[in-house]
Amino acid sequence: MNVVLRFIKFYRKQIIHLWFEEFFAWLFRSLPGLGGMLIRWGLYRLLFKELKSFPLIYPNVFLTHTYGLKVGKSFSINSGALIDARGGVTMGDSVMVGPYAVIISSEHDFKQIDSPMSSRNHILKPVVISDDVWIGTHAVIKAGVTIGTGAVISAGAVVTRDVGAYQIVGGVPAKVIGDREEQTVLAEV
What we know:
The chain is of the alpha/beta class. It has one domain (3-185): UDP N-Acetylglucosamine Acyltransferase, domain 1. The protein is 20% helix and 28% strand. The chain contains three helices and 20 strands. The chain has helices spanning 3-10, 15-28, 33-47; strands spanning 50-51, 56-57, 62-64, 69-71, 76-77, 82-84, 89-91, 96-97, 102-104, 106-108, 122-124, 127-129, 134-135, 140-141, 146-147, 152-153, 158-159, 167-170, 175-179, 184-185. The strands form four sheets. The chain has an eight-stranded mixed beta sheet.
């Protein structure tokens, strides 16, 4: 099946949203300063599934499939970060996303070997990020992951499994390296 027709069939309910998001995000993505943040807030208030307060969305953040993105209060996301919310991404209050972090809520269907992966639809897996979470620079959060309250995701970590409340994780794949409640750091990454 033609890739464009497959895309239209799969996303037919969101196709106008996706077009609007792609066009206007392209126009406003790079605007600097507070003015740029205000314009992006106005745009994403219309596009996000839920946006509870004014977010700090720095220039050159890439947000796609925002119809699946729910964000709590005091949200900040730094330059170069990417969130693909096609499978659903829910973030609590006071979540900080560092520069060039990636949050993905879908993955390719690679288990079917009878047809090319590029001809298969995405498998949607929601991501849940609780309150007071810090996601460090260049961290990757894979589809289907839940991150507990107060967790810290170290720079460069690749999170493939759930992270408990107040855990500090790092590495590839991410492992527990500390605990904020116990104020311990088990290992340096």
